[in-house]
Amino acid sequence: MSIRESTAASVRRVAIFASTTARPTTERERERRRIAIMCLPFFALATVAGFVPLAMLVRMSVAADAIWIEGWSLDAWRTLLTEPTYRRVAWNTVWFVGLATVVSVVLGVAVAHALEKYDLPFERVVVAAVSFPIALPGIIVAILVIAMLGRQGLVTNAIAAVTGTSAIDLASATAITGLFLGYVYSLVPRATMVLRGTYAEVNTQAEEAARSLGASRWETFYHVTLPEIRPGIAAATILTFRSGLAIFGTVLLLQSHYVVTLQIQREISVGTYRPDVAAAIGLVYVVFIVAFTFVGLRFVRTDTVTL
Amino acid sequence: MSEVTLESLTKRYGDELAVDGIDLTIRDGEILGIVGPSGCGKTTTLRTIAGFETPTRGRVRFDGVDVTHVPPEERHVGLVFQSYALFDTMTVRENVAFGLKMRDVPQRERRERAGALLEMLDIATLADRRPTTLSGGQQQRVGLARALAIEPHVLLLDEPMTGLDAALKTRLQTEIRDLLADLGVTAIYVTHDQEEAMAMCDRIAVLNAGTVEQVGTPSAIYRRPANAFVANFIGNSTLLTGVAADGRVDLGFAELEVAAATNGTVTVAVRPEAFEFEREGPISAEVSSATYLGDRTQLTATLPDETTVALHADAAETYRTGETVSLSIDDTSVHVLE
Question: Which positions, given as ranges, span the membrane (chain A) (predicted)?
């Protein structure tokens, strides 16, 4: 079959597919139409709010005039690749969010274990307390950190009173530790919610079998539970890392560590206004997130967890 | 292997009494069946013996040693579950060797012992497979090998045949019973299937509402049920009321030559096979339903006093609803309840 014939056959198949979806006669075709009707609104929205703006970002990043989007230039990309600041921001972002992710997932495993394995008193209150930071804007999280660890902070002044040290010296809200605390507080609920779903699938009788065979609680967790929740841990890691990369409000207020979101904000601030560089950073960010998700999904059994 | 003793075992969850003062001894090397309806406390009893439940009152002893508060991992108990509960992330061999690994048995010895058990259970060729790739029967053999690998004081089997097809169930029953007998394992076999319990167990304990109604050999439980509950739960019985006097029981429509402990009104348990079909028997009954079961036809019939009885009839004969049949009762096959 020639290329022309093959193309014509493909076009014919697509046309038939579209036609039968629009006017179904079999149950399979009716099912396809239902799926199309359910998904079309989202894809319309995604096109307007996602795909088209993304194409605009690509164009902006190679525009000679990024404001009016005119002409062609690779200056933004050259800047991104050659100026050490951007490499530093990239590294800052990866290690800081990576570490916050690891700590959040470890805490999430512990909380999910407690919630799913034991009959806790006031379980609903515990679930509400664990999950509510998801609904908190990042800027509020930053304010909470200042309220606890700032110069007038509750914890700062309590430690100062006990140790006799100056509260000013102790204040860590706007140090990297304060920011880290804010990140972890925001991310733990995300990890926990994914892991709770995974824990619900864990075979409790297999755990009991392990204990009857002589395994301690820790050995049971290590040999039986952990391998079972590994896909959930992978899923929680992907979700938490992606969420951590997107945190903006907290880092905007605390400003103790330059990460990608803060850098984008700097690039579009009055004074340093460079929308082409901001667009290039945004594209690198999107490509990185997509690639990371695809790689991460190799470790996730999609029948046990969803992202 | 050990003798297991339950002393006044009681387990309460809030206001709910799951096990109510059970006293029971499982002899060394014996297979004891625990049967009863759903919610009667059989699984709670098993979990208490395994150490996953702490009794509200009473004690569990292995060979006289009080293990009531010993954690499960130190009890040396083998568990076989209905759901198999295998470790899906390990191979069959790793599953079987797991208990030995937890006991720090050297790897070479672990491998040898696991291999021997897999041979014994006829699944040696599956050693390197994952449990999820096996059939239900194969998985249950792995579960049994895994539990036996630690040479447990007692083997606890919680409805291990439920979910298997009838032919496989029958084959496994024979194999497991013979294997446990050969190894001399003390085993407690929980099931809701009384036929399975009769096929597998040396003795059976019938539980109801957290208490033991009767303990005995399968034939004793079947032939001499202690009360109406056991008579109805183990097999099928018709309970007839009669008046006992001088070694006879008058049922109103027939008289039986059976000895009762006391004179006066008594309840007599009559198994379906105790009714004999006669050309001209002393009892007339009207067939109210007939179900063909292949090896027999199961009838329900109404006696002159409106009592409904269960009958087993020759499968070669045809019975129609409304037909009158003539019956007698085999005196030696009935039992007067105390």
Answer: 35-58, 94-115, 127-150, 170-188, 239-258, 278-300
